[in-house]
Amino acid sequence: MARSPLKTGRLRLIFFAWWLVWACLQILLIMRFGFTPAVAAADSLVTNTLLAALCWFVANTLQYYLPKQERYWYILFLSLGLSSLLLLISRWILPPLIGDRQGYSLFFSRSWPVRFDLVFLQIGCMSILSVLWYSAGEEQDNQRRKSDAEKLAREAELYKLRQQLHPHFLFNSLNSISALVGSQPEQARSMIQQLSDFLRGTLKKEDQQWVNLAEELQYLQLYLEIEKVRFGHRLSTEVTCEGISESMKLPPMLLQPIVENAIKFGLYDTTDAVTISIRTWMEDGNLLIAVQNPFDPETSKPKQGTGFGLSSVQRRLYLLFARNDLLGTVVDNDLFTIVLKIPQV
Amino acid sequence: MIKAIIIDDEPLARSIVREYIQSFSQISVMQECGDGFEGIKAIQQHKPELIFLDIQMPKINGFEMLELVEEPPAVIFTTAFDQFAIRAFESHAIDYLLKPFNKERFDKAVQKWLDHHAVSSAGPQTQSLLETAAEMPAQNSRIVVKTAGKIKIIPIDEVHYLEAADDYVKIHTRAGNFLKNKTMSYFEKVLDPSQFVRTHRSFILNVQQVTRIDPFEKDSHICILQSGAQVPVSKTGYAKLKEVLGL
Known about the structure:
heterodimer, A: alpha+beta, Heat Shock Protein 90, 2 domains, 5-stranded mixed sheet, rod-shaped, B: alpha/beta, Rossmann fold, CATH 2.40.50.1020, 9 helices
């Protein structure tokens, strides 16, 4: 809920200054009708103190109760009611206080419509300003809530995308381990280790924390080792990095789905041995990563065979950079290459 | 002696089947195969009674391989994770092994087959399984045929049209014609209806190939394809074609 405008120091000062100016003006005005300064001051002080109190009241009341519909009618009637109240009270106080000096009673009873108009105008202004103030506050709250909700949803989506490890990979790896346990228990143990490190890596990473390229490549190596155990001599890999440095960074878990896609594409589209090559370099302040796999142009069209891997990467890049041009593909004879561009910030 | 063959693209996955099967002294493993092509050859050569078959394999999957085998032997399927295949197995009450599986589960599957294989043949059950499996996403995008002893994979976009030919369906493509031992209604069911329209009792055509539709005799039309081929269109076929083309 928005705070009352009169709780802010600066606005309080403006409120008081306004009051003072208005009170002085009224004193001068009444003196022009031939009253002594004392009478004018008494009149002005009583009227304007009451007015200030009512304005204060209006500003605070609207904080707690602001009708959603018909709010302008509400303001109108509230101002009318309060103005009448003020007039009644000052009528109670002023003539008895001042008495009939210099024909004050007559002056008071003749001047009440003008007094009412002025008071009504001021209270009305105060109400409208308060309503605008609170509406703006409410709007701000809504905006904040909305952007918070959007942020949460985006984070949840990113989290989900990171989590989408293919169960196919997991179960097949477990099956390989199961086979190794009988014949090569040492190798089984090392594969369990690799699989655990790999899984731990996927769980602990958060999107906000970018990782070093070197770190990510090391992590990718774990994944490649597991796949090599699964597919034996059919799969080999080549990783080339040009001038790798500490400053090259990328969002976590972006590379793995691309390599996974390349392996799947390569291994399931041919029956021969397959080499997956990964190359990284810098260009125009962007980190570029190319992942290449062979395919059979006779039987498949790479455009269609992207599967889940690439669309999720594309989506993540969009959520992270709001750009759709960071992922490109190149088809050259029987080689399919994905080029990933990561702007370095 | 019962002859068996193991077909799986992962060497370790094959080795575990081989290891488990040693306790069945009456079964001997004739060969291990790393893909469906090897599998077909090995089945022709050894005529095994039982095969252990993985679903996801290079080029052609386990189901497509079975389609190409003339008299498929009994199959124990092994798969790690394939929701579609598992649904197909469940709906045909076919036993399958989910990787990783333990020795007990494996023994149970093999024992069950040993108990039944003498009294019933797996043929009809396998056939109906393959009909269901043909709707798998991977298989929707290609047709696998055998021609002169060789296996040919035809991407679906390269098919011009299909023509009924006795017990076979003739598949017309840029690279020539191929026969497949299926029915027209099978292809009508399996192929994507927004791309393939049965324009005639004996013809299904790929709408992407159409260049012109000309009137022909009373109530019927003729479609000219990019290849120059002419495909007859019946009255009801014309209505279907117009709908798919959005005319």
